[in-house]
Amino acid sequence: MSPAIRWIVGIALALVAGALWMVWKAGDQPQTPAKAEAAKQQVAAAPAETTPAAAALAPVASIVPPAPKVVEPVTVIVHFDFDRSALRSGEVPKLDELASSLQGRTVERLDAVGYADRIGDEPYNLPLSRKRADAVVAYLAGKGVDAGRIHAEARGESEATTGDACRNMGPDSATNRKLVECLERDRRVEVKLVAR
Q1: In 3-state terms, what secondary structure has residue 31?
Q2: pLDDT of 77-134, one tens digit each?
Q3: How far apart are CA 83 and CA 158, in angstroms?
């Protein structure tokens, strides 16, 4: 190899080594918090390089695709006053939270299932539980949830949640305030999200 070529190769190697040293040294210097945050934002906003060298230097974690997001089942329970199908003001925030959580989500359907307590006859309680489910559907539709994707169902006195807790409390009557209060959990609409 001629001396001129040796000089050119030596100078090129020195320039590459100097550039690498400057980049390495700049990474060791502490940055102020504001500069560090700005640098992070610039790095995040910069498009990813697609050269083979950049791909070889990229961390393995950035190559692995993120795991699919698991959609947790959503169930909201709204309680009602005795012999009423109007929403209680204290229960409305639950539906507001549900409606806002559904914004931007793909929803197959919502099931709104209405129930009644055991006081009264089933021919009366079944339509009452339907009115409760319909009240929830109407409220959610008013908050922007697609009413066509909400399925309302009435189950009347079936599937009581109180179990034996309200047994032996006297007659099943609207005047038995202790029993009416005990059966509050049975007067409900359960809203369940079925996601795609």
Answers
A1: coil
A2: 999 999 999 999 999 999 999 999 888 777 788 999 999 999 999 999 999 999 999 9
A3: 16
Burial zone of 169 (CB within 10 Å; 0-12 exposed, 13-18 middle, 19+ buried)? middle
> What residue ranges define each of the domains in the chain, with the CATH number in brackets?
3-63 (no CATH), 75-195 (3.30.1330.60)
Q: What is the DSSP letter of 43?
A: H
Residue pair 82/179 in contact (Cβ under 8 Å)? The answer is no
Question: Within 10 Å of residue 139's Cβ, how many Cβ atoms?
Answer: 19
Per-residue three-class SS string for 133-180: HHHHHHHHHHCCCCHHHEEEEECCCCCCCCHHHHCCCCCCCCCCHHHH
> Under 8 Å CB-to-CB from 108, ≥6 apart: which residues?
149, 194, 195, 196
What is the spatial distance between Cα 21 and Cα 183, in angstroms, rounded to a whole number? 76
What is the pTM assigned to this prediction?
Answer: 0.62
What's the CA gap between 45 and 64, in Å, rounded?
A: 20
